[in-house]
Amino acid sequence: MITVDSLTKTYGAFRAVDDVTFTARPGRVTGFLGPNGAGKSTSMRVMVGLTPPTSGSATVCGRRFADLPNPGREIGVLLDASAQHAGRTGREILTIAQRTMGLPKSRVDEMIAQVSLTPSEADRRVRNYSLGMRQRLGIATALLGEPEVLILDEPANGLDPAGIRWMRDLLRGYADQGATVLLSSHLLHEIEVVADDLVVIGNGRIVAQGTKAELLASAGTLVRTRDVPGLTTALATAGVAHAPSAAAGGSDALRVEADTEVVGSIALDARIALLELRAAEGAGLEEMFLELTAAEQRETTTRGEAA
Amino acid sequence: MSTTATTVAVPPSPPVSRRAPRPVPDPVPFARLVSVELRKCFDTRAGFWLLASIGIAALLATGSVLLWAPDSAITYSTFASAIGFPMTVILPMIAVLAVTSEWSQRSGLTTFTLVPHRGRAIAAKAVVTIGISIASTALALVVGVLGTVAGSALLGVDAAWNLGPERLFNIALAQVIGMLVGFMLGVTIRHSAGAIVGYFVYSFVLPGLTEVLAQTQQWFGDLRPWVDVNYAQSALYNGSLDASQWAHLAVTTFVWLVIPLAVGLWALMRSEVK
Question: Distance between CA atoms of B98 and B30, rounded to whole angstroms?
């Protein structure tokens, strides 16, 4: 159980995390989703006591992280797989963590096997590791103490497709055994596959949260046509809310707050040919997500008016 | 900005398969932290060679004295200072890196999540630092004994045991202070290259400047023992100290070591580990 309450972190005038409140519950995978620089990593650093919050609080297992007697045994943390001494071997990094936590020596070899590092890779210095290998080592460090809470920042970065699949199964398995899993990502699709609950953050604020099913259901209909102005007029005449959508990857799509049957008959009455008509599962979320990214002006989306 | 949200109220908790509540683990004992920090000093190539270089420098220094020193200088104090000097340079580097690598190599992200009370991790590093300086000094003295015995046997001169317990204590104290200076710079600067440069300025550049200043400015010459930390410490290598020299050492060490260390620790506790 992770409880974040009215968490705010400011750097001068910049509000990196702005009044963030959410709960990650046991037995569920909670996806912490947001574009780069949204405040995910800062929030996670506050949760584990590496960054002092400006106001608000975060507790893990009902206690402040700093009050945990042996945090590695209760909470597995991976914030940045590259944040390791480059001159140590993978095995040495695990051994240091194993000794700090007071675990039997055999745990090191068990974890090396569990994250599919070969013994010779484990004896290599981390300087020579690929990002994927560092990620596996970081996950091994996080799982070493058999924690009941996992806090993982972008754990799929650098993993190959098989590795991502492995990671997903691993997190699912942990949650099914009753663990609390919080993982962040800037990729909606990556998190959609594994998460039960979603917390979406943009510019330091939570913009949506709930179960994945709810967030994906609240999206209406996605419709594509070559005659966007005609369909827009027809929908406006019928009094149905709609908005241009970039979710289909082009500028010919609209997201409509009505079910497919209503939209289909409006189009039929207006004699407009449709290219595609479907329930916009997740399109609303994706829309919001792209808008967040565009608002930050780091990328240009396919929507001309969003830039 | 138009980030309107499709905010959904947090739903009531669905039933979950809960694991049996687990016992709260025992706190991490301090002795364990000390042993882990000691290991971390020497488990990298840089750390290993720094340690090895202490032994290598001790042997080279002993050999040099045997080969090139005049017979009259084959004394225990010659060996002890020949071995001790390279250590005064190497030991503080170990202390600097023990602290700064947590930031420069970013391993602090793991260290301070496994030990969220940063003070305990840093205190463990301080204990290791002091322990290493005492052990190294003991090593230097033992190698010095071997050198003196070998020297007198090889060259046919009488072994000259001209270092009493008081001087041995002073030399050990000087090594501990020197290593704590490195530790202080590590804590305060928290960047490997910066802290190492800081150490060389502190220990090798400043003494030259104060020397020049003392010779050209009468007022500074009088004031120097009270403000020049290296000057006050150098007395420890040159025999026994009188009461005023101990006072100089206490005052300068407090100003140049204790106060910056306190400020550095205060900042370190509040800093963000990234």
Answer: 17
Annotated domain spans of chain A: 2-209, 218-306
Measure in Å the smallest separation between the Cα of A199 and chain B Cα atoms: 10
Query: Given the structure tokens 């042997």, which residue do they identify?
Result: B59
Could you confirm whether domain A2-209 is CATH 3.65.10.10?
no
Residues of B in contact with A87 (CB under 8 A): 44-47, 105
The amino acid present at B130, given as its one-letter code, is I
Residue pLDDT tens, chain A, 307 long: 999 999 999 999 999 999 999 999 999 999 999 888 889 999 999 999 999 999 999 999 889 999 999 999 999 999 999 999 999 999 999 999 999 999 999 999 999 999 999 999 999 999 999 999 999 999 999 999 999 999 999 999 889 999 999 999 999 999 999 999 999 998 888 888 899 999 999 889 998 899 988 877 766 788 899 999 999 999 999 888 888 877 667 788 888 888 888 899 999 999 999 998 888 766 667 777 777 666 654 444 444 333 3
Give the residue from A39, A35, A40, A36 showing the smallest Cα distance to A11.
Answer: A39
What region, left, alpha or beta, does residue A178 occupy, with left being phi > 0 and alpha being psi -120 to 50 degrees? left
Contacts of B78 (CB under 8 A, 6+ apart): B65, B69
Q: Token pair of B86, please? A: 């390279």
Closest-CA residue in chain A for B27? A69
Token pair listed for B19 = 């694991």
Q: Which residue has the tokens 């949204």?
A: A38
Beta strand pairing status for A205-211 and A55-60?
A: unpaired
Residues of chain B with C-beta less than 8 angstroms from the C-beta of A80: 106, 109
A:47-106 residues touching chain B, CB 8 A cutoff: 48-52, 65-66, 68-74, 77, 79-80, 82-88, 92-93, 96-97, 99-102
Cβ contact B17–A178 (<8 Å): yes
